[in-house]
Amino acid sequence: MSGDAAGAAAPRWVDAHCHLQLAGGDEHAARARAAGVVTMVCVGTDAATSAEALGFAARHADVLATVGLHPHDADRVDAEWGDLERMAAEPQCVGVGETGFDLHYRNSTIEGQEDAFRRQIRLARRLDKALVIHSRDAWADTFRVLDDEGVPARTVFHCFTGGPDEARAAIDRGCHLSFSGIVSFRNAADVRAAAALTPADRLLVETDSPYLAPEPHRGRENEPALVTAVGAALAAARGEPVAVVADCTRANAERVFGIRA
Predict the structure, then answer these.
(1) How far is the C-alpha of 73 from the C-alpha of 205, rounded, in Å?
(2) Contact 42, 79 (CB under 8 A)
(3) DSSP string, 33-46
(4) At residue 93, what are phi and psi to the nearest 5 degrees?
């Protein structure tokens, strides 16, 4: 091994989207640190999980929180809105969401999903915080509402599952694309093609843990430490060194979430 290689610093990663409050908690956070993850964005999906995300952020300097109502639970927006609005204003909260549309499962009505999405877009704009979008089988509706409301300056499509056309549409609107373990799946050629064309300054990496463990870990519970495997798959899709992807995604996360990682 050359002297330069031996002295090279290990990649430092930001997991731009995880759910520590759903599995693993402090243990998963500790393993992530040991793996080179310097910041984890713990994402809320309703009032209870948003409060738990804020709790993790209060206990750990390297954990940040978002506050939001997932489209699965959007029909509860009236009941939970007061708490969500209050928590979103907390200093540990760096983003609003995840919010958007999920027309695959339709656990909430499409009308409820749209109402909750619109409210959260407006909240992100008012508080000048990142907007974290969940969009599944709903590209037309997602873009329609974004165009109608106006895209917040720092908007992230989390767990991006579209192809090149959807990627270009999001990028043209100024959005960032966050890639999960799906980029490593054998049947995800369209996602890899989208990753390859995403500009370096619009790229993020995430685990979405405890879901979507990347290859070669599929079938086990995901955790933020495995963002290193997601990053390696993303680098392969882009034909770039892993260290380059780690550096650019970390810098992008700093800018999007207003942090220093």
Answers:
(1) 25
(2) no
(3) HHTTEEEEEEE-SS
(4) -85, 120
Query: Is 103:14 a contact under the CB 8 Å cutoff?
Result: no
CB within 8 Å of 7: residues ≥ 6 apart:
none
d(CA 114, CA 75): 10
* Separation between Cα atoms, residue 228 and residue 240, nearest integer Å: 14
Are 241 and 249 a contacting pair, CB within 8 Å? Answer: no
The contacts of residue 97 (CB under 8 Å, 6+ apart) are 43, 66, 68, 120, 124, 130, 131, 132, 133, 134, 158
pLDDT digits (tens, 9 = 90+) for 58-74: 999 999 999 999 999 99
Provide the token pair at 206. 């995430």
Q: Angle, nearest 10°, between helix axes 77-88 and 110-127? A: 20
Distances (CA, A) of 120 to 52, 170, 199: 19, 18, 26
Amino acid at the residue 69: L
For the chain, domains (ranges, CATH) are 12-236 (3.20.20.140)
Could you tell me what percent of the chain has a pLDDT over 90? 95
Give the helix ranges, DSSP H, for the chain.
3-7, 25-34, 47-59, 77-88, 110-127, 139-149, 164-172, 189-197, 227-238, 242-257
Helix axes 139-149, 110-127, angle to 10 degrees: 40
Question: pLDDT per residue over 105-146, tens digit each?
Answer: 999 999 999 999 999 999 999 999 999 999 999 999 999 999
Question: What is the C-alpha radius of gyration for the chain, rounded to an integer number of angstroms?
Answer: 17
- Each residue's pLDDT tens digit, 133-189: 999 999 999 999 999 999 999 999 999 999 999 999 999 999 999 999 999 999 999
